[in-house]
Design a protein that fits this description.
This protein has 161 residues and is α+β, with helices and mostly antiparallel strands. It contains 1 helix and 9 strands.
Length: 161
């Protein structure tokens, strides 16, 4: 009668190989998560700029997208210029904070002034960096939607700037 099953040595070898593969794959999973957060923040800003343009036209009033570039950065869509996104205020329509995008740094930012006629009197945008130095830039032109591009090495799904 033959014995079925695995010996302790065979099980230990399989676990060692599995541990080795997991150790090699872990850095790529971390980079994938950082890249997803980078894409998320860029797409959120592009959507907020588009929504602010539409909302300015709907209300018949200018709107402002303004940034605070401190390490705990934020941006806000507001009914008046100078409405800080750092603390809740009645002039804010929407805010977004660094805490919601862990590990993503705001490298550069330009405030936007959106007119009710549908154009950006002052185009705006920002550049974000992930910990592995991947970057995405969001640019709002005077007319048309905001676009996202990669200023350095390509980020999958986005053209070079």
């Amino acid at each position: 009668m033959s014995a079925r099953g695995l010996t302790l040595i065979e099980v230990m070898m399989a676990l060692a190989v599995l541990a080795l593969v997991a150790t090699l794959a872990l850095p790529s999973f971390a980079a994938m998560g950082e890249r997803a957060r980078l894409k998320s923040v860029a797409e959120t800003l592009a959507a907020d700029l588009a929504q602010a343009r539409l909302e300015a036209a709907r209300r018949g009033l200018p709107l402002h997208v303004e940034f605070d570039s401190r390490p705990d950065w934020c941006w806000g869509v507001a009914t008046r210029s100078g409405c800080s996104c750092g603390e809740p205020q009645p002039c804010q329509l929407k805010t977004e904070h660094a805490a919601d995008h862990a590990g993503i740094e705001l490298v550069d930012a330009r405030n936007a002034h959106l007119e009710p006629a549908g154009f950006a009197l002052q185009g705006g945008g920002a550049e974000f960096r992930a910990p592995h130095d991947e970057r995405l830039r969001v640019v709002l032109a005077a007319l048309g939607p905001a676009h996202i591009c990669a200023p350095r090495a390509p980020v999958t799904g986005y053209p070079a700037c």
